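Here comes just one.
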Amino acid sequence: QVQVVESGGGLVQPGGSLRLSCAASGSIFSINDMAWYRQAPGKQRELVATITRGGSTNYADSVTGRFTISRDNAKNTVYLQMNSLKPEDTAVYYCDTDLSWRSYAGISHRGHYWGQGTQVTVSS
């Protein structure tokens, strides 16, 4: 089985910074793209940033220049460094991992696995 767990959310003042982490664990043998999404109250979930296994990144226009996505393949972990935070960044942030894992029976599986989300609140 696979577990994906986010951490690092919290309350921060406008202009502040937070670093989110997302770790995947289990019988994983490969992780492809990893991504961060967010969902604000009353809004649809939106893509924030993506990173390929090789390290290529893409960002939503609203966070370009302020957020940085990175990953540590050895730790099956993706990070989101968020600087110059604004009240409109307030949302639940979710991690999405495209990964492959092997069951006890030796059968390989591939799919998208999500974390439970971590709340980020930007407010004075």
